[in-house]
Model the fold of this input.
Amino acid sequence: MSAIWIAVLGASLTAFLNKYLGHSVPEKWLNRPSFMKINALVPIVLLSALVGVQTFANKKELVIDQRFAGVLVALVALKFKAPFPVVVISAAITSAAIYNWF
Amino acid sequence: MKNQVDRTALSVAFTVGLYGAAFGAAGVTAGFSILQTCLLSILLFSGASQFAVVGIMGAGGAAVTAIATATLLGFRNALYGLQMAPILKVKGLKRILAAQITIDESTAVATLQENDADRRRGFYITGIGVYVFWNLFTFLGALGASAIGDPSVWGLDAAVPAAFCGLIWPRLKNKTHFVVSAVAIAWALLLTPVTAAGVPIITTVLLAVIFGLKK
Done:
């Protein structure tokens, strides 16, 4: 089985266990204040790190290219409360324009 | 439309479902087949975790790193389950189905309602609605991206991190959150040249622990 298949099936299994766990255990097991604070930060750090890597990494090298311009435009769109498709499409158009014309 | 709950639930379901197209494109761009991309939406069904799996595998990370990152991201669904269980009161097969659609959106729409009957209705209509639209648009996005040769030509290389920005933005509720986000980006970039792919991402969990315990 390829690594991608292992990732697809493994992550699907643990995702379901996470969901089912919440429906099945007593509340006091999970509901602790310090734990909740950490948990609120977990998606922020993981997703921020992914943004950083996907914007600047080319394998193990850090580069500034058309992707950075696209992400900057997305951030501006978010700042102005643009709907999600506008955010993604404006980033794609910016990045594609720079990639194709420069 | 019969009532306000249904209206809210369906409009959320459709809007969020559109994200599915971005995910479908991201999956194929990262080297997943259309089938593998669609299976993530069918089986895993939690946006941030799905994006993390294709992001890490696409960067050449190990399967175990992708699974661990997705699992940590999915833990919030366990907390949603805790919140929903006393309202839904379901067992057996119904609990399995309810668990699968326990995500950000179904829980959010449910908590906006004023009584348990509406909470249940909001939860199920949103959850099932997102499931249907998310899977439909995942397939369309994957199909579209597979028709494209070089993802950079169409800007897909920037569309993926832009989609992540859209997922993070609503979570940044105060100054600390912005600081934590910036530190996580810096950390990941510093580690990128010196560690295996995926490691720069999953190790940011340490930052969440440090900042979470600090105040």
Chain B touches chain A through 99 residues (CB under 8 Å). The radius of gyration of chain B is 18 Å.
